[in-house]
What does this fold into?
Amino acid sequence: MSQLHVIDHPMIQHKLTIMRKKETGSKDFRELLTEISLLMGYEVTRDIALEDMPIETPLCPMTGKVVSGRKLAIVPILRAGIGMVDGLLNLVPVARVGHIGLYRNEETHTPVVYYCKLPEDIQQRMVILTDPMLATGGSACDAIAMLKERGCKNIRLMCLVAAPDGVAKVQQEHPDVGIYVAAVDQCLNENAYIVPGLGDAGDRIFGTK
Ligand code: PRP
Ligand code: URA
It folds into this structure.
């Protein structure tokens, strides 16, 4: 079963609470999401591969360790996943970025694919798939399946808020994919929105409602 990592550092909890408040506007919402994404990125990349790098300090030569950033790809699920990209790029500036376009049909709540553009060598990279909301898990599972069809073997899913249903679906369909979230909320409502959640993440990031 895929491992669930709840990254509930006090600073992340604090920032997430401000994001959840209904009166928080798009500018603050976006900035907080970027900050949390960077903080979550520390845990998601905790075991990322390092390479030796011979360097000289002012005192003597030594072999340092550097992250092999070429081995990482960030793949947001459009639209809302885009809000987590800048924070991760601040952490690993040389990572490549792919995009998967999915939206939920508002009546059936099932995902519809409309776009996919990934780095050419995606199958050689560790992929961090980003989406702030893991509700039914349909969008994440379809996006993971698309990545696997293209040869990806090392995939991590990074979300802000999850519902228990979404976590269970990813664990069942993709037991090899690690799940990283800042919070697991109570349940889904009749419209498959996460409760208490934070509303529609895409609308709050882009100010579309
Ligand atoms: C939201 C969210 C996820 C999806 C989660 O996107 O960003 O992609 O719903 O729901 P699920 O786990 O039940 O699939 P939405 O479909 O609203 O599209 P948007 O990002 O374009 O607003
Ligand atoms: N998508 C969102 O943006 N929010 C939810 O609570 C569920 C799906």
Q: What stands out?
A: The chain has a mean pLDDT of 95. The CA atoms of residues 65 and 185 lie 38 Å apart. The radius of gyration is 17 Å. The chain has six helices and 15 strands.
